[in-house]
Amino acid sequence: MDMAAVDPDDDDIRRYVVLRNAYDPDRRQRRWIVVAAFNRRREGRSLYRSLIRDLEHRHAAGEVADPYERYSGEIRHPGDRRRRENTRVWRDASRRGVTFQELSEQVAPPEDMVFLQPRRRGGVGRFIQKPNRGRRHRLRDRLRPPFP
Question: 7, 16, 41, 119: least buried by Cβ within 10 Å?
């Protein structure tokens, strides 16, 4: 079966992204690395399951150099990257003291942030991100399928 991979950074389509958590010697830290992205759930789940099976076989044979290596997956919806960047711009600007009026003229406010009014007159308000409202999240448990 030939799987049609897509660009994981293409923000115009829904992507099923398979991730690998491993040590990156260039950055000297553990991080999530994109293995592949697909436009179909079945293809993403198939690759995920085959990678997990391979990892379990390597663990059983004692061939794994990194005992903390694991795989996961996430669903990236259209516009997610733009929303994340927008949220980052607003959060960083509010930390630097930019006013709501100045910022709203340039960038639309993100839907997942709240503006807190200052307690005293002349104080600077700030933006905080709303708590996660049950939206998708990266699955850390390698035994659960990443694309429900």
Answer: 119
